[in-house]
Design goal:
The structure holds 2 protein chains of 2 kinds. Chain A is built from 13 helices and 22 strands. Chain A is of the alpha/beta class. Chain A has 2 domains: 176 residues, Rossmann fold (3-Layer(aba) Sandwich); 161 residues, Dimethylsulfoxide Reductase, domain 2. In chain A, strand 6, helix 3 and strand 7 form a beta-alpha-beta unit. Chain A starts with 27 loop residues before the first strand and ends with a helix. The relative contact order of chain A is 0.19. Chain B has one domain: Metal-dependent hydrolases (TIM Barrel). Helices cover 34% and strands 23% of the residues of chain B. Chain B contains 20 helices and 26 strands. In chain B, a hairpin with an 8-residue loop joins strand 7 and strand 8. The longest helix of chain B is centred in the middle third of the chain and has 16 residues. Classes of the chains: A alpha/beta, B alpha/beta. At the A-B interface, helix 3, helix 4, strand 8, helix 5 and helix 11 of A face helix 1, strand 7, strand 8, helix 4 and strand 18 of B. Zinc ion binds next to strand 9 of chain B.
């Protein structure tokens, strides 16, 4: 269409030969891992006779994701093996016939999400990600008050105080502490300065908060649902408000005062939370109080929030939906226009109330991303090996971005995105390819 | 296929054509000179219509993380602005921070064929390109932000020398797929992370002990030496602070004749006179710009109504949060690379400050003599959404209309501006310079912004009506690469548009210290920071146009 010039010395695409292509050694370096929201990109992955093998920097999630054997799997219609073309035709027929199709799950990459948006628009459907409930704990705050945030590299190099709020991060992001908190050489922590790590909440795995520049590690073990109360008390004490209570949710006021003092003296403090961990009613109010505390502290020193989570492509789904429709998921195209209602168009609710009559469920990263159980006809675009309680009307096995095909994902901090490498694990089609075919047949 | 646009009144300043009836021929997407007996396949009789090259917006925030934060935060602004899917077009939403798709359609409907995102962080470049990839109809490109990134500031402090730094600038432009380089509050975004709340031109960064002046000179000289056409795009110190007219004057003098583009100068032309300690510095700034031919600028005109400011300037945006409307905002420290601040804003004509800001922008338009060095922008969406451009054009072309509008604003602001006494009325020729030829020349787009033989056939045809707002709102015809894409303000064909980049020469040896730096401090590998050509071409279904750069000049 237009003059396309590429190349020039040296082309921007140039990669050192033999690295990301796997080269003669068959080992891929600098591989980004799509199996959690912090997208570590320093993995080394090789091959064995049976599949991929992580050589370096894998965590449990990466091992489960990359080394999962790809079982032979064929498209199915009502449990019967069919060709991809037949499955696509049947899926398109069901989508076309549906009154309000729900495009749910949405465990996919940017390209897959673009295809979801296009197809949902075309079909007059609803889009929502399986992890929206967690993300909405953040979105509600962003939309009502806003916040002051940091990113992974900034925190890694700058924070002298890291406060973990009610989130069992080590389980969600097994390498967060290694890569961000316990780093050997932060750029701006000099002259023997140490990093203090505080955990607010009981039962959080603190085992990885060790080594590197970490100095003191402090735990304030309150029930998870009460972390907001503790942060609220901290905020009050920072403002000099006297508190009559001797303790708040089991935490002595003296300990809260001690933390207030550390916050005040910090050069760059970071409050960290993972929205999926804050699984209690009205958790958005906890995110709000944490964000407001950060705002208060910035009046005199520097502080920022850092939100993690974003597994199963949740951040990419939210971002693509926002830039294409103006709204972060829970959008219906039934009228042709994007219609935004974070309550009405929540996938769980639409399924529970049977307001949708077809679920098109996308799960391209892990077999764990299952649709809520229901007898509503389901078109499943899933990784091989998913077993639904009720047989899907159509099942199309898809590849995983970053293992079976290339792709791109946006990281939990909503700033950085990473290229995902085609490691040649299988030849399964991408979500984007399958959805484009379904849309084409609508 | 040979297309003939016959007899239109052509305004093509790059070729010195000022309102002459001309025929224009198009073949294979280009403007051509046909042979004597060649058969015309399609003819558009355009007698009485105004013909210009497609318009170019050289500074509009259309893609990247901070724009999407704005979209996500201001959902109430989208309500009532939702756009349904059409036969050819996708759904979306409009107004202050439109969705990517809708932004592309709206620009084309207004006769724009190219738009440039001015604040792409290296750390966010991939997403900026994805969003531009989802902005159809227009060509696009982006300016990569440097100047508060720790690699540069360390290199300057460690006195690595200009060759090293120039290699880094070149490498970054390649890696981020950029057309130009922008600096935002030089060093100030970084200083804010060290809790400095302001950084004047000659004030030292507490950690690096560098001044904004050092950073400006280093980058401006670097770009000249590596041969990038667009000069350093400067968002100066002290944005929005009364008294920053002094900073702007000092910044112009500090450049010592080096080519420089000062952006959204309206936000940097505030004096401290009067009861409100807020006055217009536009006359002084315009006077110095007129005298310094090395300086070009865009205005960043404010327009009344709800909008959303989005900037890399975390330091100053944090300062502006007290004026947020509605009262919510996002500020971020980003990746040892940059920052951002997204602050919604409602400019009111009955507010003294907002009304005077409006007048200051117009004073700049009136008083900067040379339209080749002055570009029409609202710094979308910072001063107002780009959809207000037709109204702005009318304000510039129609003194009676401008003075009518002036009567409506806060009386204190009326008294504080000389706008009413300024008689200038822009001609169509000057509008064509400010919105086509000037930006194309400044950005180094060799075959855009003009209608000469060989140019890309990006052409806009307007009805020549007296109401210039109506005229520029809805062009009759818009061609992109020779294809008719808009007819009577309605999209008739959807095209993707290309991405313009510049690729100055650099020495790959810079990758050794860079790779080491990334491995040591960052959470992204150097090789993964790079945005590959295949991402734009295959994943975004786009294309890349590499604009020429001059040969690199090396230190003796
Ligand atoms: Zn701007």
């Amino acid at each position: 269409m237009t003059t396309t010039t590429t190349g020039s010395p040296p082309p921007a695409t140039a990669r050192p030969s033999g690295l990301s292509t796997g080269g003669a050694s068959g080992v891929h370096e600098n591989v980004a891992c799509p199996f959690c929201g912090i997208l570590c990109d320093d993995l080394e992955i090789g091959r064995t006779a049976s599949g991929l093998k992580i050589r370096k920097n894998g965590c449990d999630r990466a091992v489960a994701g990359f080394e999962r054997p790809v079982v032979a799997s064929s498209p199915q219609v009502a449990g019967r093996e069919v060709s991809l073309a037949e499955a696509v035709t049947e899926a398109a027929r069901l989508v076309r016939a549906a009154r309000l199709p729900l495009f749910g799950g949405l465990g996919t990459d940017v390209e897959g999400m673009r295809a979801v948006m296009s197809a949902a628009e075309h079909a007059g459907g609803v889009v929502d990600h399986a992890f929206s409930e967690g993300q909405y704990r953040n979105f509600e705050v962003l939309q009502t008050a806003g916040w002051f945030m940091s990113t992974l590299t900034e925190t890694r190099n700058r924070a002298d105080l890291i406060v973990i709020v009610g989130s069992d991060i080590h389980k969600l992001h097994p390498r967060f502490f290694e890569r961000i908190v316990a780093t050997p050489e932060p750029m701006f922590l000099m002259a023997g300065k140490k990093r203090t790590v505080v955990f607010i909440g009981a039962g959080l795995d603190t085992s990885a908060a060790t080594g590197g520049h970490i100095g003191e590690v402090i735990s304030l073990p309150c029930p998870t649902a009460a972390v907001g109360e503790v942060v609220s008390a901290l905020r009050a004490r920072l403002k000099g408000v006297p508190l009559a209570a001797k303790e708040i949710a089991g935490i002595a006021i003296a300990n809260i005062d001690d933390l207030a003092d550390r916050c005040r003296k910090a050069d760059y403090g970071v409050m960290v939370w993972a929205p999926p961990s804050l699984a209690f009613p009205a958790a958005d109010l906890t995110v709000r109080i944490v964000s407001d505390l950060v705002k208060d502290l910035n009046l005199t020193t520097r502080f920022a929030g850092l939100s993690l989570g974003g597994n199963e492509g949740a951040v990419s789904a939210g971002a693509v939906s926002t830039w294409q429709s103006g709204f972060p998921l829970r959008v219906s195209y039934a009228s042709g226009k994007p219609d935004y209602d974070p309550v009405r168009f929540a996938a769980d609710r639409l399924i529970a109330r049977r307001e949708t009559d077809l679920v098109l469920w996308v799960a391209s990263f892990t077999p764990d991303l299952m649709p809520p159980e229901s007898d509503i006809p389901t078109v499943l675009l899933g990784v091989p090996g998913m077993t639904l309680a009720v047989q899907p009307a159509v099942y199309i096995p898809v590849g995983t971005p970053g293992a079976d095909h290339a792709g791109r994902l946006i990281r939990c901090d909503n700033v950085v995105s990473l290229p995902l490498t085609n490691l040649g694990r299988s030849t399964l089609p991408s979500v984007a390819t399958v959805l484009a075919a379904i849309e084409h047949a609508l | 296929m040979l297309i003939k646009l016959s007899g239109g009144t052509v305004y093509d300043p790059a070729n010195g054509i000022n309102g002459e009836a001309r025929d224009i021929f198009i073949r294979d997407g280009r403007i051509v000179k046909p042979g004597d007996n060649e058969r015309v396949d399609q003819e558009y009789p355009l007698k009485g219509y105004v013909v210009m090259a497609g318009a170019i917006d050289p500074h509009t925030h259309i893609g990247g993380g901070k724009v999407t934060i704005g979209r996500m935060m201001l959902t109430e602004d989208h309500i009532g602005q939702e756009v349904a899917r059409g036969e050819l077009t996708r759904a979306g939403c409009g107004h202050a921070v439109p969705s990517t798709l809708t932004a592309g359609y709206r620009y084309a409907e207004m006769g724009y064929t190219a738009c440039f995102e001015p604040a792409m962080l290296p750390a966010n470049a991939r997403q900026a390109h994805m969003e531009m990839g989802d902005t159809p109809m227009v060509d696009k490109g982006a300016f990569v932000m440097l100047g508060s990134d720790d690699f540069l500031l360390r290199a300057m402090t460690q006195k690595k020398g200009s060759e090293f730094i120039n290699d880094y600038i070149g490498w970054t432009m390649h890696a981020a797929q950029a057309l130009a380089v922008k600096v935002v509050n030089p060093g100030g975004i970084s200083a804010f992370k060290f809790n400095q709340r302001k950084l004047d031109l000659d004030e030292k960064h507490v950690h690096y002990e560098l001044t904004p002046r050092d950073i400006l000179i280093t980058l401006a000289r670097g770009l000249r030496e590596i041969g990038v056409t667009h000069p350093l795009h400067v968002h100066g110190c002290n944005l929005g602070v009364p008294g920053n007219d002094e900073t702007t004057l000092a910044t112009i003098r500090a450049m010592e004749g080096l080519p420089v583009h000062l952006t959204h100068v309206q936000f940097h032309s505030y004096g401290t006179e009067g009861d409100m300690k807020f006055s217009s510095g536009a006359p002084r700034v315009a006077e110095l710009v007129n005298k310094n031919k090395n300086v070009s600028m865009d205005v960043g005109q404010i327009m009344f109504g709800q909008t959303c400011t989005a900037s890399g300037d975390s330091m100053r945006q944090y300062g502006n949060t007290k004026s947020a409307y509605p009262k919510k905002w996002v500020v971020m420290d980003i990746e040892c690379d940059a920052g951002c601040g997204v602050v919604p804003m409602k400019y009111k004509d009955k507010s003294f400050v907002n009304a005077l800001q409006w007048a200051i922008g117009l004073e700049l338009f009136m008083m900067v003599d040379d339209p080749w060095r002055l570009f029409l922008t609202t710094d979308h969406p910072n001063g107002g959404p780009f959809t207000t451009y037709p109204h702005l054009i009318r304000l510039l072309m129609d003194r009676g209309f401008r003075n009518d509008m002036l009567q409506k604003i806060h009386p204190g602001a009326q008294a504080a501006t000389i706008l009413g006494s300024l008689k200038r009325e822009y001609s169509l020729y000057e509008i064509a310079i400010m919105t086509r030829a000037g930006p194309a020349k400044s950005l180094g787009l060799k075959d855009r912004g003009h209608l000469g033989v060989g140019a890309s056939a990006d052409i806009t045809v307007y009805d020549d009506v007296a109401d210039r707002e109506a005229m520029f709102q809805k062009p009759g015809l818009v061609f992109k690469n020779g294809e008719l894409i808009v007819k009577n303000g309605v999209i008739v064909k959807v095209v993707q548009g290309a991405t313009h980049v510049a690729r100055p020469e650099y020495d790959r040896a810079i990758e050794k210290p860079l790779r080491e730096y990334f491995d040591r401090y960052h959470t992204v590998r150097m090789d993964n920071l790079r945005v590959g050509d295949h991402e734009i071409i295959q994943s975004d279904k786009g294309s890349i146009i590499q604009q020429p750069t001059r040969a690199r000049v090396r230190a003796a």
